[in-house]
Give the backbone structure.
Amino acid sequence: MITLTVNGRTHRLEIEPATPLLYVLRGELGQNGAKFGCGFGECGACTVIVDGEPVFSCLLPAIAAAGRKITTVEGLGTPAKPSPLQAAFIAEQAAQCGYCTAGMITRAQALIDRNPSPSESEIRAWMEPNLCRCGTYLRIIRAVRRLAEAWAKAHPGAPEEASR
Amino acid sequence: MSAVSPSRRAVLAGGGALVIGFSLHRSAVAQDAAAPAELPGDLAKEPLLDAWLRIGGGGDITVFTGKAELGQGLKTALVQLAAEELVVAPEMVRLITADTALTPNEGYTAGSHSMQDSGTAIRNAAAQARRLLVARAAGLLQLPAAKLQAKGGTVVAADGRRLGYGELVGNDLLHVKAAPQSTFIAAKRRRLIGEDVPRIDLPAKVAGGAAFVQDLRLPNMVHGRVVLPPAYSARLRSVDTAAASRLPGVLKIVEDGSRLAVIAETEPQAIRAMATLAASANWDEAPDLPDPANLFETLAALPAETVPVHDGPGDMPSGANVLEARYRRAYQMHGAIGPSCAIGLFDGDALTVWTHSQGVYPLRAALAQLCGLPLAKIRCIHREGAGCYGHNGADDAAADAALLAMALPARPVRVQWMREQEHTWEPYGSAMLVHVRGAVDALQHIVAWDYTVRSSAHATRPGGAGNLMPAWHRARPIAQPAPQPLPLPEGGGDRNAVPLYAIPRLRVMYDFIPAMPLRASALRGLGAYMNIFAIESFVDELAKAAGAGAIDFRLAHLADPRAKAVINTAAARFGWEGFFRAEGHGRGFAFARYKNLAAYLGLAVEVAVDHESGGVRLVRATAAVDAGEAINPDGIKNQIEGGILQAASWTLYESVRFDRSRILSRDWSSYPIMRFSQAPDAVEVHVLDQPGQPFLGTGEAAQGPIAAAIANAIADAVGVRMRDIPITPEQVKAAIGV
């Protein structure tokens, strides 16, 4: 029995402890956001947030996620009520096929959570593990910057890059 | 409130819904369609209006397209067109995409054809439906049609009386053949065409909604995995299935010739059984791949059929300045981020397959042959997958799902390939060779051009089961049919092989290699990527030899004002004149009209070349595109931006690695593609809208130009001409001589 806390809800699951978290999210919890892309942590399509850190759920054994705070793209907002970052992705139309999108958003959210106003170079460096084959990198950067700029505007006295 | 005329009762007598006879009566009506070729877009293939558009008794609108959403924004653009011409909000339109039970047969979603084929059909069907609705309302209200207006799902009279579309439609109004001409909503009344309507599929995709075939969960669904041979040549010698069959959750192991597969209750169970099965399998394989060190020599020596593309005089006039060059392109892969996936369900009688194939109808025919079922017993339904950019593993995974579903009736079987299976078994974009000679005179004119392009096939899509890879491995295999060159004007390896420039002595040949040392098929742009790379690189070489500038030289050889407009716009917006050349930086230009009949693209780029490493970075790109009438300008921009980044990745980083027997590009480490740090600083796309002009395919327009623009910019930056794709740091470094 493994206890997982996903998007604030606790689940007790009869699963193999070594099962990668990705298959638990998709297979046991019926989630769609985290995607299978490579299974080696080389593409980021499966990215979720665990205790504030972006992780490859295709590599993380479920047992290693037990007792930790897991956030998936479903936990950020809904199609009808998207989170600010999800809304920024829509505003910038920052997708083509959208298969990488959930992983992009979760990784970017982990950045925004620690630095609400990242620079473009910080965004690029942070997002490096995630691949997009359709070539929407620049739109994804713009979506994150849109949020960063909105934060900076709302906090006029704050330093340019809040994490510093 | 609607004012009801007495005869409305008669209209409603049929129940108001127009759902009958759509497919049943189709063939009968089509037979007496004497000259369907005159109809616009794919109405020519399917002339009945209600094959494209149906309105229910409640006024609900359903639009049908045989094309598929591939991430290109097709659904949004088609909804825009239908909603515009029916004068309703986009939310009122439900769109059904490629499904052999429901939609017209529009072949493949490929070749940047969707807007011109399906978009044109749907727009015309919607406009004609609107006129029929208004005409029927005019009859019922006894008013001239000119006094009526369609609006928000009703037809409204000046006196306030109104009739809903659902009340008007009856069961026969749209069951008519389309007319060749339509009256579109006047430009000043348009609300949607030409607007950046947000993609209708994105809200689900940003929030974890079920958006992909990978997300489809059917009741009692089980999971299949396949063990693919480790090499093209590999044949199964022996396997011990006992260990795998004892694993928890395993329902079925399929051993059929060299085909191995497993079905289990859960996905992790299927993956574990797959790994166990793979570990116990012994294969015989042969070193039958070309020596990678001599790939191009091997290709040059393989027998080829010569296809004359433009059979003019190819000799170089005496006295002119003659240049000669050879360009080469490695095998490159689609590299979808999500490996191919499909779900099959066989109920003992009929088979249903959910697939991200680009062609559900051709796939159905192939599966009928593969599974030994009549066509009528197979339904293929498109569900989105990860962006495919051509013929990847989608159809093969659908075949896997179909075969496994047949092996375990009554339970839906979901199959997803593993990453290394997609990487090593998808059909690649063929390696290519170009040899060109050209001559310029003292007046800076190109006076002669002799060009030969050589490659394997660029289309081995299913139609027959022999193009489904799983068919090759069965105990009773179906061999792959001999590939054929795709006919002009669109062409395959010779797509875009003819330069659009005015050249008095012009000869273009295509050496089609029937053999496929590596499995090859359609990759975004087909031969256009390489041909435009070669042509636009060589044009720069000729311009330099003639002492002319890249922009002026191109303009001087073009008559088409739309071609000139994209060149001038891209150059101006980039700041071509007055470009500041920082150390190691250069500018490059390229132009093409995709397939010589689709979208026009002018493209200027800046690159930075690192002298120490030879590494090249695309710094910025500015494009101008003329895609005809622009339905969704931001959708066009997204396609061009994405095409620029994707093909920059092909051009700078990508080459399928292999040894004498196996594919070695098994993951993103052994087949690297562009990452965030390598993405350009900025890409600007300017859409030159052409209201009233036909839609011109856009999705593949940037692939070739970006390759040439990069090579031209490298030449500008460091004075070396790179003619091999990918343009690796090692080659650049060697060329610079540092």
Notes: Chain B has three domains: 8-204, 213-285+334-425, 432-458+493-736.
